[in-house]
Amino acid sequence: MFLLHEYDIFWAFLIISSVIPILAFIISGVLAPINEGPEKLSSYESGIEPMGDAWLQFRIRYYMFALVFVVFDVETVFLYPWAMSFDVLGVSVFIEALIFVLILIVGSVYAWRKGALEWS
């Protein structure tokens, strides 16, 4: 039989984790100063007068470079726990990690051939 009281901790956690961000937004909206002046409405608040239009087009190459960086950064996040417990996990996990690394190598070779790693 399904008993609802077994999930009391779950519901308490769900309610608390929903209320805290809502309260943070409400409190910051009430306490935040509202000073809209010419500096605040300007494109940049660095103290330097903006020159030209604020809408500049960037080359897609910068975004591709950042995307490749994020992919390989995430790779290290996934491989670190595996490397810390390598002696406990066994051969099957080693093969899975090897397949994961091979897929990433294929992706990096593809990005290299497409020119996504060139910064010019």
From TrEMBL:
It comes from the Eukaryota. It is an enzyme of class 7 (translocase). This is NAD(P)H-quinone oxidoreductase subunit 3, chloroplastic. It is a multi-pass membrane protein. It is found in: Mitochondrion membrane; Plastid, Chloroplast thylakoid membrane. GO terms for biological process: photosynthesis, light reaction. It catalyses: a plastoquinone + NADH + (n+1) H(+)(in) = a plastoquinol + NAD(+) + n H(+)(out); a plastoquinone + NADPH + (n+1) H(+)(in) = a plastoquinol + NADP(+) + n H(+)(out); a ubiquinone + NADH + 5 H(+)(in) = a ubiquinol + NAD(+) + 4 H(+)(out). The keyword Amino-acid biosynthesis does not apply. GO terms for molecular function: NADH dehydrogenase (ubiquinone) activity; oxidoreductase activity, acting on NAD(P)H, quinone or similar compound as acceptor; quinone binding. NDH shuttles electrons from NAD(P)H:plastoquinone, via FMN and iron-sulfur (Fe-S) centers, to quinones in the photosynthetic chain and possibly in a chloroplast respiratory chain. The immediate electron acceptor for the enzyme in this species is believed to be plastoquinone. Couples the redox reaction to proton translocation, and thus conserves the redox energy in a proton gradient. Keywords: Chloroplast, Membrane, NAD, NADP, Plastid, Plastoquinone, Quinone, Thylakoid, Translocase, Transmembrane, Transmembrane helix, Transport. The keyword Metal-binding does not apply. Its EC number is 7.1.1.-.
